[in-house]
Amino acid sequence: MNNLRRHFSGQRGMSGVFLMLALACCLVPRTLLAAEPYPAETRLAREGVNALLNVELDRSTAIFDRLEKEYPNYPLSGFLHGAVYWVRAEIAQK
């Protein structure tokens, strides 16, 4: 153990830190890095964004309402509702 400590400290200080970081990155399971914190909510949000991009405003509003009702803690629901209002305003100006 003392040999390892001596190897990662002293004159090689920074290279030892980089080596430890590289090992830590290799040991972290990919599932932890790729885990999506809101999988069901994100699928529903994507469905609403697709409807919004297809200018199906009533459908996207209904999907975002459902998203807000079923998942009140989803961080993007307010932003997505705002996007619908913005698209409606843009269409009204033209």
Short description:
This protein has 94 residues and is mostly helical. It has helices at residues 2-8, 13-27, 30-34, 39-53, 57-70, 77-93. The protein contains six helices and no strands.
Count of DSSP H/I helices: 6
In terms of structural class, how would the helical and strand content be classed?
Answer: mainly alpha
Termini distance? 72 Å
In round numbers, the mean pLDDT is 75
Quick one: overall form? elongated
Uncertain runs with pLDDT below 50, 5 residues or more?
A: 1-5
Helix content: over 70%
**Beta content:** under 5%
Question: Can you lay out the helices and strands and say which pair or pack?
Answer:
Layout: H1 2-8, H2 13-27, H3 30-34, H4 39-53, H5 57-70, H6 77-93
How does this structure look, described?
It is a single chain. With about 90 residues, the chain is mainly alpha-helical. It contains 6 helices and no strands. The N and C termini lie far apart (about 70 Å). Residues about 1-5 have low confidence and may be disordered.
Descriptive keywords:
94 residues, mainly alpha, 6 helices, disordered N terminus
